[in-house]
Amino acid sequence: MANESRPCPCDIGDRFDYGGRGQEVQVEHIKAYVCKPPAGTDRAVIVIHDIFGWQLPNTRYIADMLTANGYIAICPDFFVGQEAWKPSNDWASFDDWVKTRDAGKIDKEVDVVIKYLKDQCGVKKIGVIGFCWGGAAVQHLMLKNPHLKTGVSLYGVIRRFADKHSLLHPTFFIFGEKDDIIPLEQVTLLEQKLKQNCKVDYEVKIYPGQTHGFVHRKREDINPQDKPYIEEGRKDMINWLNKYL
């Protein structure tokens, strides 16, 4: 991670005061937040949370934004009942904590969610987005899951899948220029590797002056200088999903 005392800057940003428009459901062994558009649709997006878990209001805000754009959005508890990280936790224990929550070992849960979307919601096309820990999970899924059409990885921790670039599906990577946990040299290397190995459409975009978590962890109304980039990141995410779903 970035350093021993502060191994992850995921507490940068704001906790939204937001209740959510969807509902919590039980999908086999997983709890999940689901929001559906009133008009009905056969397109869905799986939202993969960051280290703060599936109940973070910020993540539900983004899920509801997807629904406002015509998608069924589902944010499952990919920690499967294990506690999410709390800002009050000791960062010195973070590495041990995250080892028990591997972003590359969510395949069983994703399969359960896909089955639910197809069988219970009539979904035919499924994409995935994820933030930080969830962004790394998106890259993992884009390398191997045949049932997903596309993905958006928002500041996904590159080093977790540093040597894997043969993506199966179109993938959009969002990074902040000032992200302490993902140095720009890692982003440059990712681009080089994708250029060499990737046979599908992809895009890597760096947003000027932005820190880790900016798309879902910063409030536009109290960060006026960041507002254009927050809005641009969200618009880019929606446009990518619209293109491939």
TrEMBL record:
Keywords for this protein: Cytoplasm
Molecular function terms, GO-annotated: hydrolase activity
UniProt keyword Cytoplasm present: yes
GO cellular component: cytosol
Matches recorded under Pfam families: DLH
UniProt subcellular location: Cytoplasm, Cytosol
Gene3D superfamilies for this protein: alpha/beta hydrolase
Cited InterPro entries: AB_hydrolase_fold, CMBL, Dienelactn_hydro
Domain Dienelactone hydrolase intervals: 30-245
Keyword Amino-acid biosynthesis appears in the UniProt entry: no
Protein name (record): Carboxymethylenebutenolidase homolog
UniProt lineage: Eukaryota, Metazoa, Chordata, Craniata, Vertebrata
